[in-house]
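Risk register update: the risk of archive-format incompatibility is retired. Evidence:
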Amino acid sequence: MSVDAHRPLERPVIRVADLTGPDAIEVGSAVRAYLLQTELEKHQQERTVPDPAAPLPERYRREVETPAAAYAGHRVLLAQLEERVVGVVVLSEREGIAEIKRLWAVPAARGRGVGSALLDGAVHAAAASGATEVRLSVWDWRQGALRLYESRGFERVPSWDDRERLVCLVRPV
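Archived output:
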């Protein structure tokens, strides 16, 4: 993604994804990038060498291959810059609690407010649906993401997940 130095930076546009149409491809592609990056980072943290030919673990394939089925009952928002999809956030809701399941900004678009806009869009969508809090989890090595979440009012709480190094955060709506 190139940026014209003479044009002011455009703010990301956040919209609800239509998973029955072309947005499904965009969501699958963004989620694939997110999951592959996560798997690579896990190997780096464990100091193991990933197999570049290895497919995504089975538990993730449905999200990439059939996002409409994988995210049925979820709210999926897309971020666009210059009419290009540059990010995605997946929000689930249950019993007044919304949970951000995936949040990804294309690396080339980072630093342009994409992550902040997606996070704000997810919180707004949670509030509009009547949720009283939003929660999420993030790996402790993702310090940039932790700073973003905490800057938006998320606070660390005891973990609801038994995976080591996963940080859980909550914020009221």
